[in-house]
Specification:
Layout: E1 3-8, H1 24-33, E2 38-41, H2 46-56, E3 62-64, E4 69-73, E5 87-91, E6 94-98, H3 103-117, E7 121-123, H4 129-136, H5 140-147, E8 153-158, H6 160-172, E9 176-179, E10 184-187, H7 192-206, E11 211-217, H8 223-226, E12 231-236, E13 251-256, H9 258-270
Parallel strand pairs: 1-2, 1-11, 2-3, 11-12, 12-13
Antiparallel strand pairs: 3-4, 4-6, 5-6, 7-8, 8-10, 9-10
Helix pairs in contact: 4-5
């Protein structure tokens, strides 16, 4: 029987804008019983995703910080070293494949840009935990998780004119500007699509090529993930519209956040 594997974004898909899961835990529990891997692929940090995976009972590989790294338990794949020349880090009982440059390096570059070009912006590293919690509407504990970025920096406040300048300067320095919702990330080397591609290679080997891939997202930032899927699925944004992304064969379901995710699951369940 063909093995199914699901890649999914987190915010706006399995989580609604208030942080609620809806029926997602029940659905994921059903998928786990059927041995269908669910791969989180998000801008969220390792700390944030570790908590979410624990809450959902997941133990499959996951992609953090917009493709900054791939994390999976040792023994999940027989021979992950087939991926070749990538930065493998062993951490306790896990492998971490690093694609992005360290956050410390990116923050140093941003500080240089701020000084040299007289730009006014505030990143996560520039705030206290109390201020970060206030700006993000997160609890202090969740704000701490968000602050533990390893492969980029999140910009929380910036003047619109400075944003245009920063975007142009960053591009010339091989930095990426990744827009999310209210905030945006600055990364270097992070590649959500590349991370997905590497995991697909490992899953095909694990299941002897007899595997079909599903992807669920809600925004332009998910396009690079969805392009690698056999069945790319898009849920509605909070305003009821769908993101305008160039992904061949994308399926649009009429549901927002976890409601849309549940409808996507129904589509997945109908595929042999």
């Amino acid at each position: 029987m063909t093995q199914k594997v699901i890649f999914t974004d987190i915010d706006g898909t399995i989580l609604d804008e208030s942080g609620g899961y809806g029926n997602t835990p029940r659905i994921i529990s059903s998928l786990m019983k059927d041995n269908v891997p669910v791969i989180l692929c998000s801008a969220k940090t390792l700390a944030e995703q570790v908590r979410i995976r624990k809450e959902l009972g997941l133990n499959d590989p996951f992609i953090i910080e917009n493709g900054g790294a791939i994390v999976f338990e040792k023994g999940y794949f027989d021979n992950p070293l087939i991926l070749g020349n990538h930065r493998f880090v062993e951490h306790n009982d896990e492998y971490v494949i690093e694609l992005g440059k360290p956050a410390t390096q990116i923050r140093e570059l941003l500080n240089d840009i701020r000084t040299k070009f007289n730009l006014n912006f505030k990143g996560v590293a520039d705030t206290s935990m109390e201020e970060l919690a206030s700006l993000t509407n997160l609890s202090t504990n969740h704000a701490k998780e968000m602050s533990r970025r390893e492969y980029g920096e999140t910009i929380l406040q910036i003047d619109e004119r400075d944003l245009v300048k920063l975007t142009n300067i960053a591009r010339d320095m091989d930095l990426n500007i990744i827009h999310g919702g209210r905030f945006f990330d600055v990364t270097m080397g992070n590649d959500k699509g590349k991370a997905v591609e590497l995991l697909i290679k490992l899953f095909k080997k694990k299941y002897n090529e007899d595997v079909i891939f599903f992807g669920i997202g809600d925004s332009e930032n998910d396009a690079s993930m969805l392009r690698h899927m056999d069945h790319p699925i898009l849920v509605q944004k909070t305003d009821g519209s769908w993101s305008n992304i160039a992904v061949k064969g994308v399926i649009k379901v009429a549901g927002i956040g976890p409601t849309g995710w549940a409808l996507a699951y129904e589509d997945i369940a109908r595929v042999i």
